[in-house]
Amino acid sequence: MDGEEDAPVSLIVLVVVFYVVGFFIALYIRLSKIVLIRKIKETGRVISLSQTLISMIMQQLQEQQNRTQISPATGLPPPPPYTIEAPRAPPVEPDELPPPYVAPPPYSK
User: Fold this and answer.
1) What whole-number distance in Å separates Cα of residue 70 and Cα of residue 83?
2) Distance from the CA of 72 to the CA of which of 3, 57, 87, 99 falls in 20 to 30 A?
3) Cβ atoms within 10 A of the Cβ of 36, count?
4) What was the pLDDT predicted at 1?
5) How many Cβ atoms from other residues are within 10 Å of residue 40's Cβ?
6) Beta carbons within 8 Å of 70's beta carbon, 6+ residues apart
7) Mean pLDDT of all residues in 7-14
């Protein structure tokens, strides 16, 4: 019968742990929002949370791109990213233009 009594106690402990963890997560979110609101008030601009996250991600990407990473195999920085350009036709002079299209005479029986 000890096994049956232990199960509810461990379940209660598990629920209490989840509540405490949830409380701390909510508290962290609340404090981060307060810090964000304080920053918005200091700058005088209204920035949504998603815009802030996007700007932080873009800043991290730019910093990562600005760092020159040296390849251990060659000892050289990576080559610049490749750009693919569409092939361009050479310019056509007016003398080289084909003659204008002339419709054939109508079909007659």
Assistant:
1) 21
2) 57
3) 14
4) 47
5) 14
6) 76, 77
7) 81
